Amino acid sequence: MKPDHRFLRLLARLAVIEAASLVALGGAMLAGPRVAVTAAGALHGAVWLLYAWLILAMICLKMWDKKQAARLVICALLPLGGFVTARWCRRLLLQDALRQHQ
């Protein structure tokens, strides 16, 4: 079963938010007060858990195999890897749209 478009769009958005929250966390650690680090860390952790939950849901619904899911998790662990994931999701959406119009 191929991934549903709604799941791909949500995954792309979460991946970008996750990567941006990591950047914000890094900035807070370098320049911000301790409360900013705590807030940015909590935000980043919550977004990462949502991202991981979505990947697990897609595995359970047979939309991804374990190899694709591992790629998504590895990208989430790499700094700015969420932007790579978002681009990949958008490419999959575009390819599917092109196939439907042929």
Automatic annotation (TrEMBL):
Tagged with keyword Membrane: yes
Cell cycle in keyword set: no
GO cellular component, one term: plasma membrane
InterPro entries linked to this entry: DUF3817_TM (IPR023845)
UniProt keywords, alphabetically: Cell membrane, Membrane, Transmembrane, Transmembrane helix
Superkingdom of the organism of origin: Bacteria
Taxonomic source organism: Duganella callida
Location within or outside the cell: Cell membrane
Predominant location category: membrane
Name assigned to this protein: DUF3817 domain-containing protein
Pfam families recorded: DUF3817
